[in-house]
Structures are given as C-alpha cells and as structure tokens.
Specification:
This protein is of the alpha+beta class. It has a single domain (4-189), classed as Aminopeptidase. 34% of the residues lie in helices and 33% in strands. It has 7 helices and 8 strands. The chain has helices at residues 4-12, 40-49, 52-59, 68-75, 127-141, 156-165, 186-189; strands spanning 20-23, 29-34, 83-91, 94-105, 111-118, 146-152, 166-174, 177-184. An 8-stranded mixed β-sheet has the order 1-2-3-4-5-6-8-7, with helices on both faces. Strand 3 and strand 4 form a beta hairpin. Helix 2 (40-49) packs across helix 4 (68-75). It binds coenzyme A (COA). Coenzyme A binds next to helix 3, strand 5, helix 5, strand 6 and helix 6.
Length: 191
C-alpha cells in the first residue's frame, strides 16, 4: 500500500513531455502517454482482449486473466529506472489501452529489459515501431543506453523490429527464446 506521500511524489514525477498524439499507417490517431497507477484495471482489460498467441508472445504463458497484483505492479513505475508508455484510443465504451512498451531493470545492472505488446487488431500498423522509438528516446534522456529483450524464436515481427531499429550487440538462444542485447542507434533515439 502506498503512502499519500509516495503517491504524491510519483504523480509529481509524471513525465508529461512523453505524451503525444500519433498517426498510424492506416490513418487512425492514437494517444501515447506514460502509464499511470490508475491504468491497472485497463491493463487487465487489455490482457482480456489479447489473443492467446499474442499473450503468449508477450508473457511466455497464458493466463485466464492478468492477476490484479501483477497489473498494479505493471502500472506503477518510477518513470526513470522503470518506465512504460501506453497507447490509447477512444471507443464508444470509453478510452481503451491498445498497446504497452516498457523497460525495467534487469539482472545486469547496466541493462534494462524491454517488452512490448500491441492488441491484435492494432498490430502491423506501425504502433510497435512508434513505442520502440519513444521508449528508446525516453530511456536515453534518463541515461539508460543498453537494453535486453526476450523474444520467442518464431516471433519474426519483434525480431525484425529490433534488428531494423537498434544495434544488436549479442544474440543468445535457449529453449526457443532469443535473448537480445542491444543499444539504440543515434539516429533512432533522436528521430
Ligand atoms: C511485436 C509487436 C510489439 C510489434 O508491434 P506492431 O505494431 O505489430 O509492429 P509494426 O506495425 O511497427 O511493424 C514492425 C515491423 O515488423 C515487420 N513485420 C510485420 N509482420 C511481420 C512478420 N510476420 N514477420 C516478420 N516481420 C514482420 C514489418 O517489417 C514491420 O515493419 P513495416 O513498418 O515495414 O511494416 C506486436 O506485433 C505484438 O504485440 N506482438 C505480440 C507480443 C510480442 O510479440 N511482444 C514481444 C515480446 S518483447
């Protein structure tokens, strides 16, 4: 349970400058912004809309529902060492999250682990590319320059995305999972 002081200081640290509108390849407009603690329920709803395949590609397991404790953890970041950007759009039911890109401290002190998920119907429209670029730029502004990601070996789209827009330093494969270590390309982070 957070104290009021912690909640207030987290709110104060909210990086408004990372918010922006973006236009996808099909012309649809989405809003990109840093995640907020009140997104926990929206993350559970987003998870509920994912196909089993997409959920598995992101979490390497399929759950009936994203556990509320996990959603709370994912929605609460310090905007420095842990940061998540969400993409949202308006629906007749209200605002829905359609994608999340995040980085977190990894076991290696100088390396942050990145992970992405885009709701199925929104995949292949350039949103993953946008979140990757915005996240790399935000990380760089916070002094983080080396990243890793765990990607299933048959996940061509994610492997392609990282190969195209980052500088891959190391690629290890174990039990069908590729562990990539990469840095941002100067042109990518400042694009
Ligand atoms: C991987 C993922 C984040 C990419 O986001 P996206 O919005 O679908 O990606 P984009 O539309 O930006 O496309 C990225 C590139 O992938 C490539 N691509 C698309 N489909 C592909 C496929 N089936 N195989 C290989 N490359 C493919 C394209 O080259 C595309 O580039 P383009 O701009 O030239 O079309 C998204 O598809 C997703 O959430 N997948 C499920 C979860 C997941 O895999 N997470 C990764 C774990 S870290």
């Amino acid at each position: 349970m957070k104290t009021m002081h912690e909640t207030a200081s987290a709110a104060a640290a909210y990086p408004h400058e990372l918010q922006r509108a973006a236009t996808l390849r099909d012309g649809s407009r989405v809003w990109i912004r840093p995640i907020r603690p009140d997104d926990a329920e929206r993350l559970i709803e987003l998870y509920g809309r994912l196909s089993r395949h997409t959920a598995y590609q992101r979490f390497f397991t399929v759950m009936k529902r994203l556990p509320p404790d996990w959603a709370r953890l994912l929605a609460n970041v310090d905007y420095r060492r842990r940061l998540a950007l969400v993409a949202e759009h308006d629906t007749p039911r209200g605002v829905e999250l359609i994608g999340v890109g995040r980085y977190e401290p990894s076991e290696r002190g100088d390396t942050a682990e990145m992970a992405f998920v885009i709701q199925d119907a929104w995949q292949g429209k350039g949103l993953g590319t946008i979140l990757l670029h915005d996240l790399l730029r935000a990380a760089e502004a916070r002094g983080i320059r080396r990243f890793c990601a765990y990607v299933l070996a048959d996940n061509g789209r994610m492997l392609d995305l990282l190969a195209r827009f980052t500088e891959i330093e190391e690629r290890k494969i174990e039990s069908g999972v590729v562990e990539l270590t990469f840095t941002s390309r100067p042109s990518t982070a400042s694009a």
